[in-house]
Sequence to fold (462 residues):
Amino acid sequence: MRAGKRTWAAAAGLAALAALPAGAGPATAERVQTAQEAPVQRFQLAPGRTRSFLVRPPRPAGRLEVRALAVGCRGGGRLSVRPPRGARRVINVSVPRRWTRVLMPLPEGRHRLRLRFVAPRGGPRCKVVLRGRPRPLGRSVKLGAAARSDRISDPRYVRTLVRNFDSLTPENEMKMFLLQPRRGRFDFKPAEALVRLARRNRMAVRGHTLVYGSQLPEWVEYPRKPWTRKALLAVMRRHITKVVRHFRGRVSQWDVVNEAIDGDGRYIRNVWFRAIGPSYVEHAFRAARKADPDADLFLNDNSTETTESPKSRAVYRLVRRLEHRGVPIDGVGLQNHTDTEAYPRRRSLVASMNRFARLGLRVELTEMDVLTNPRLDRAGQLRKQALAFTAAEQACRAVAACGRITTWGFTDNTTWRRPKDRPLLFDRHYREKPSFQALARGVGLPSAARHSRRATRASAGR
Ligand code: G3I
Fold:
């Protein structure tokens, strides 16, 4: 018992723990102080008993982060924390032993939070530690990651993904070469596998990407006779309509057009541009809006993390033009593929994001990864990489229009870069890196590090 207590006290980062009260907790409401991190609530729950707390969110309104740690209920069972109305998710955790968290957007006022331990009658009591802390609304940055369908049979991969990220972007599975490999023949299977995984774990999905000049099926890229404008426009519209309708209600955001502009600020001469002309961008957005009026529509591009380059200026002008023409665009994705030497600094990112925000658009960092410098020792590499992620996190938090940072993959063994470049947040053994800790501090996942550390330990022990 003693050893057990030490383990979970250490896991929770609590220096001193008073003895747990004996017996089942009364089903009365208690008050959770939320002006700052709430005092730790410790109690026991007998199977089938419910315990309520009254919580008061920050003013004028905000999110309350509630974390619960269930320990010592090894007989099996589930601890559920049912938040008040409007909360994003219900904590429902298999006991024993994990810290789990829920972020609840709460309007002003007092709210009742209910905890229930569901286990066979006569089973062990569950010791619970509860903490809460408020986060101002609109300041929390979500964290997403690109994922690959061919890796989801690996439990370590899935565990790391679903525990630490709020959203998922299929890395290749929604590109045209996979979705419509032959004209009129759609294959949704690999993309579906990822969308279902996301939904099972209450993660949002960013659709990537409807119109892109790369990773096209051969029948589009190398037609027997050159495309006419009319024919290729029809192909593009049909593809968008079919795909967006298929995922309607399940994909909340689309990269409608990906990488339209080259380094000199000109349109990339891809097949869409060559046959349709620059208006392909506008037509793509209109078709996407028609197919799902509720999805957020993004233009996604690289090298827009500064305001100064010819490319960045051209992307800005394109977006402004789209806005003026009433094209339905909701946001701009800044990919932010970078490295430890030249990574965009906070100030530059803020300036670029604000420029789009002033047009009334949302912004996100959509494909971030940071190559490390092989000339540095490992500690130096990791430290510099963490600085690059910190700059991104601080910039995103400083700009109200920035809602999310997505990394392009999440473990160094499944990156589109060379694994030895170590560009991501977890190493090839799924251990979190300093970059993850740097990012997690700002994106409201303080417990995530603990989750993953423990998950890594558990898998290493196997
Ligand atoms: O589909 C074939 C498969 O049949 C074959 O067996 C296998 C053998 O290598 O290759 C598979 O194709 C790979 C494809 O990804 C799908 O997995 C290609 O080799 C590989 O080069 C391709 O790379 C992708 C790259 O886009 C292509 O440009 C990366 O995984 C993907 O991360 C990357 O993503 C892009 C974003 O979409 C847009 N922004 C830049 C970013 C990085 O390039």
User: Anything to note?
Assistant: Residues 47 and 122 are 7 Å apart (CA to CA). The longest strand covers residues 126-136. The pocket of G3I is lined by residues 171-172, 214-215, 258, 335, 367, 416 (CB under 6 Å). Residues 378-398 form the longest helix (21 residues).
